[in-house]
Each structure stands twice: as C-alpha cells, then as structure tokens.
TrEMBL record:
Coiled coil: none annotated. Residues 6-191 form the Guanylate kinase-like domain. The keyword Metal-binding does not apply. Gene3D superfamilies: Guanylate Kinase phosphate binding domain, P-loop containing nucleotide triphosphate hydrolases. This is Guanylate kinase. GO terms for cellular component: cytosol. Signal peptide: none annotated. Keywords: ATP-binding, Cytoplasm, Kinase, Nucleotide-binding, Transferase. The keyword Ribosomal protein does not apply. NCBIfam families: guanyl_kin. The gene is gmk.
Amino acid sequence: MPQTLGNLFILAAPSGAGKSSLIKALLEKHPATGEHDNAMQVSVSHTTRAARPGEVDGMHYHFVDRAEFESLIEQGAFFEHAEVFGNYYGTSKIIIEQTLRQGIDVFLDIDWQGARQVKAQIPDTATIFVAPPSKDELKRRLTERGQDSVEVIEQRMIKAVSEISHYHEFDFVVVNDNFAAALAELDAIVTTRRLRKEKQIIRHQQLFDNLLGS
Ligand SMILES: Nc1ncnc2c1ncn2[C@@H]1O[C@H](COP(=O)(O)OP(=O)(O)OP(=O)(O)O)[C@@H](O)[C@H]1O
Ligand SMILES: Nc1nc2c(ncn2[C@@H]2O[C@H](COP(=O)(O)O)[C@@H](O)[C@H]2O)c(=O)[nH]1
C-alpha cells in the first residue's frame, strides 16, 4: 500500500475549450504502471442531463434523473454538486475518498462552482483553468465538434463568458491555443505537484533512512 494520498486536480474551462481532450492526452502520456503511486484517474460525475450520442453510462457520466440526484444530495453523497445549463452535475464523495486513499491521482472535470466547493474542503487541490485563445475559436471548436445544435452552441457561448469570469480563482491558467504547448504546460503542473518534497520524502523514506545510516 502506498503511504501517500493521491493528488487531486481540477480542470475547469468553458465548454469546448478542450479540457476533455487535454486530460485524455495527459492520461495517454502517463499510462498506469501498475503501481498505484503513478496512477491517474478521471472522476466520473453524476448528471441529470441526457446522454449525447456515443456517451456510455458509467463511463462518461452516471446518468440519473432529478429525483435520484436530489435524493443523493440529501444523503450527502456528493463531494460537490452544481447546476450547469439547467442540469445537475456532482462528484461522488465515496469514490473520490477511496481513490485518493489508494494513492491514485484524481482529475475532476468540473465547473467553477464545483471547484470552489472542493478547494474549500481540500485546500491542497491544484485547480487549473483552461482558457480558449479567443471567442471565435471557442465557437469554431464547438461547431466543428458536431455534438450540439446551433441553439445549444449559442447557450454554451453565453455561459462561457460567465465561466471565464472566474479564471482568477484558480491556481493555474493554461491557454489551449496550440494543443501540444497546452499539454506540455498541463504536464508540467501535474509533474511538479507529484514531485513535491513532502510526498517524495514519504515515498522514499526507506532510501533516506539508508542514506543516513539509521
Ligand atoms: N488546441 C486545440 N486546437 C484545436 N482544436 C482543439 C484544441 N483542443 C481541443 N480541440 C477540439 O475542440 C473540441 C472541444 O474539445 P473538448 O471536447 O475537449 O472540450 P471540453 O472543454 O471538454 O468541452 P465540454 O466541457 O463541452 O465537454 C474538440 O473537437 C477537440 O478536438
Ligand atoms: N460542478 C460540477 N460540474 C461538472 C461536473 N461534471 C461536469 N461538470 C461541468 O459541467 C459542464 C457541462 O458539461 P457537459 O459534459 O454537459 O458538456 C462542464 O463545464 C463540466 O466541466 C461535476 O461533477 N460537478
């Protein structure tokens, strides 16, 4: 069993800025080695929104109805939850706690409201805001992605301004213009966080005991 808790990361961004693509690429760059200490996982949220074509229950989201979501809120099952685009979204408390206790790093792809709630509970969380290079490019990405109607894209563009207005609440800001450059910045943030002195000392306690001859 690893002796350290996993690191908790939050990636927030206006819809379409590219946070899912960045997390996916980051996980591919850091494949699990079988050692929990090197593992990363993306948390699967609960939501009341309808599944999009191609989305799989339990993989992209846990899709539930409003009554079930509200019952989960009452049971205190969520680490954080918020209403976004008229739907509920939330992060399961037990899954996050269990995963971090196994020494596995966890990424939350959540909005600014959720980020605020998590940071208040775990100040050590690294919060990262991913910004698009321009409004025009954001709209182009949403359109090219081909998942949403013109009306939904307009709604997401309005919401984007509200999401972006919270950028200063985050520990790090990554502008996703050139994808490879943004991924390298994200990787640097994650790697630096993993190499913090306290974590390294606990991880390598045996080595330091040997080096110091105790
Ligand atoms: N740097 C980039 N340059 C050009 N296109 C990009 C870049 N990053 C991501 N994209 C594309 O933009 C679209 C939106 O990306 P993605 O789905 O990752 O966004 P998201 O922030 O996770 O959105 P949502 O919150 O709605 O799920 C995708 O088609 C993706 O391939
Ligand atoms: N506060 C939370 N926000 C969440 C969670 N899961 C996703 N989200 C955010 O919602 C919007 C819309 O997502 P979409 O998949 O419908 O495009 C986006 O900003 C996500 O980051 C959550 O558990 N809590």
